[in-house]
User: Fold this.
Amino acid sequence: MYELPSLAYDYEALSRAISGDIMKLHHDKHHKTYVDKLNLTIQSEPSLMGFTIDNLFSRLEGVPEATRKSICNNGGGHYNHSLFWLCMSPNGGGEPEGDLLNLIIAKYGSFQQFVDEFTTQALSVFGSGWVWLQPNADIITTPNQDNPIILGLDSPLLCLDVWEHAYYLDYKNKRDDYIKAWWGIVDWNAASIRYSDYLEQ
Assistant:
C-alpha cells in the first residue's frame, strides 16, 4: 500500500513563498486524497500490488480502462506531489552548481534564460498541470496529474505544481507571483543529486 510521505520541513518553513495554510491543505488533504484513492484502486486490481510507483506506471497496458485512468490520475497525483515536496527547501533558492548548472547553461545560454523559459512554460499551462525539468535539460509541461514517467520519459530533476490549489490561498489568480516566489525556495542541491544519480545509471 502507498503512504503519504512526511515532509522534511515544517508547514511554515517555506512561508516566504508558500504559506503554512497552503502547505497543510496541499499535503494533508490533496496529496492524501490521491494516496487513499490510489490504494482503493490497487485493492481492486491485486495484480498491481507491491510495485513502486514508477514500476506501476509501466504496467498499465492491459489493465481495465477505468483502473488505468484512476492510476494515472491518483498515482500521478501521488508521484508528482512526492517529488514536488523534495524540490523545495527552507534553505533553497539561488542557482545550481557543477554539472547541473553546466547542463542548463549549455542548453539555455545562462541560468537566467533558463528561469525565464521555465517561467514562460509554467504560465502557458492552461488550467491545471505541472512543469518539469528533464535530465537532458528539456522543459516540458503536462496537464492534470500526468508526468514524464507516464509518458515513458526519464525521471525528472525538478517539478512545479501549477494547479490553483498550490497557490490560490496566497496569490489568488496571480500565478506569476507564485512562480516568482517559488524560485526562492527551489532545492537545487536535491535536483543536482538527482542529476548525478541519472548520470551514474
The chain has two domains: 19-86, 98-200. The domain at 19-86 is CATH 1.10.287.990 (Helix Hairpins). The chain has a mean pLDDT of 96. The first strand starts at residue 129 and ends at 133.
